[in-house]
Write a structure and sequence with these properties.
By secondary structure, the protein is α/β, with parallel strands linked by helices. Helix content is 34%, strand content 21%. The chain contains ten helices and eleven strands. It has helices at residues 47-55, 62-65, 69-78, 99-107, 120-128, 167-176, 200-208, 213-236, 260-275, 285-294, and strands at 15-17, 21-24, 29-33, 36-37, 90-93, 112-116, 135-139, 152-157, 178-188, 297-307, 310-319. The strands form two sheets. The protein has a seven-stranded mixed β-sheet with strand order 7-6-5-8-9-11-10, with helices on both faces. A four-stranded antiparallel β-sheet has the order 1-2-3-4, with no helix packed on it. Strand 8 (152-157), helix 6 (167-176) and strand 9 form a beta-alpha-beta unit. Helix 1 (47-55) runs parallel beside helix 5 and helix 8 (213-236) packs across helix 9 (260-275). The longest helix is centred in the C-terminal third of the chain and has 24 residues, at 213-236.
Amino acid sequence: MPVVPFVCPRSGSDLSYDGKFLKSNNNESYPIVNGIPRFCPKENYSSSFGFQWNYFDKDQLDNYSGSRVTQDRFYAETAWDPEALNNQNILEVGSGAGRFTEVFLRTTSTKLYSIDYSNAVDANWRNNNSYGSRLILAQASIYEMPFPDNSFDKIFCLGVLQHTPSFKDSITSLIKKLKPGGELVVDFYPIKGFYTKIHSKYILRPLTKRLPKKLLLNLIESNIDFLIFISDLLCFIKLGFLIRFVPITDIRYFPKNLSSKQRRKWAIMDTFDAFSPEYDYPQRLPDVVQMCKSNNCKVIFSGKVSYSNGSATVVRSIKNY
């Protein structure tokens, strides 16, 4: 299996290593920090995710939470056979703290190329560096990925695209890195109707996304016990549909095996995840299907996928030859 090299994300030219930087022949240089190449500015629109995943660095990992929810979600969404992934070049875009990275590396024997735009890559490395050279990690933008076009047999991008500035451009960028015949799997927040944005998250985000991240986290931590009580009460009295108006993530879909302490931590983590990102753009499923088709792909699946404790809206597509 040929190795996919790092290239200059802007020009596509080869890079050389001088001991501290990766440098292109047109004098662009990219530092290596903590063993990870950095192809983007330190501060960017995903900084909230860097803060989030370095703070909640282990909570979502199956081997930490004691659940199988991430593994179940990964294989439900991709429909991949772990054994069939050997001898293929696979790219993960938007790794966060490495919850899917860990599942992939634990359940297969092949390499994984993985990028994130935020410094969550540091959390991913802490969590998964035991896999050694099988994890090839970099900090980079989805719009300027440091790999040649037409390089990967499969690409997955889960929990990411709605948080990018342009969903359409993100799809285009991902497909460029696929080999002809390669497969792309993405998920996203769906628009289900006019009521999708009649939700506490979208009502409050214009304010909350502008708050200093530590302040927002402190506000959530200070009020989470009351919010959990209200959420549980609404469910108990069969008014769960009203949870959308309570500024808390929907805790009904957490893994059932979580302790009360873990459940509280997940509630803080997912509520912060809802209210802090710079961008949050849910999409209509037919629109995402058309984005893939207009980028020379055949859509092989589009729709809702269920897994333990949850579901996701997924599109799988194959790049045409």
